[in-house]
Design goal:
Dual specificity phosphatase 28; Protein-Tyrosine Phosphatase, Chain A; alpha/beta; globular; five-stranded mixed beta sheet; EC 3.1.3.48; Dual_spec_Phospatases; single chain; TYR_PHOSPHATASE_DUAL_dom; 41% helix
């Protein structure tokens, strides 16, 4: 089924087929897409900004090093009044991990609470064990930062 799953008012998740559906993107007024894959296509619309995070859905991949870059890109889109779509091939593991990291960083949520929001928005969300352990590491990292460096609450 083609659908963009709403995580927050300005953050959506999907699989790559839905992400390339121009009608869905226009309907939700998506302005920025993060493609968390090495080979999945981008939407063809020239009006949408894009970012590729070149990782496979493999527990040994280092997704951690992209958490802050993606989180800040999503937050920048939100702050400018845009809407962001994060997707990977199936919209389950890579994109779920990126959305969870964003909520942890910019909404100051615990891993448990952030993932609960992602899972509510996209019930098939299920980061692979390697990405899950990277999210746990990221949660510890965020807990050691002063509040002024964690991001702002929405």
């Amino acid at each position: 089924m083609l659908a963009l799953c709403k995580v927050t008012d300005a953050l959506f998740m999907s699989n790559s087929r839905s992400a390339c559906n121009e009608n869905l993107l226009a309907q939700e007024r998506i302005s920025f897409c993060i493609n968390v894959s090495r080979q999945q296509p981008f939407p063809s619309s020239q009006q949408i900004q894009t970012l590729r995070i070149p990782v496979f859905d493999d527990p040994s991949e280092d997704l951690y090093r992209y958490f802050e870059r993606c989180s800040d890109a999503i937050e920048g889109t939100v702050q400018s009044g845009g809407k962001c779509l994060v997707y990977c091939k199936n919209g389950r593991s890579r994109s779920a991990a990126i959305c969870t990291a964003y909520l942890m960083r910019h909404q100051n949520l615990s891993l448990k609470d952030a993932f609960e929001i992602v899972k509510t928005g996209r019930p098939v969300a299920d980061p692979n064990p390697g990405f899950w352990s990277q999210l746990q590491k990221y949660e510890k990292h965020l807990q050691t930062k002063p509040p002024s460096q964690k991001g702002t609450l929405q």
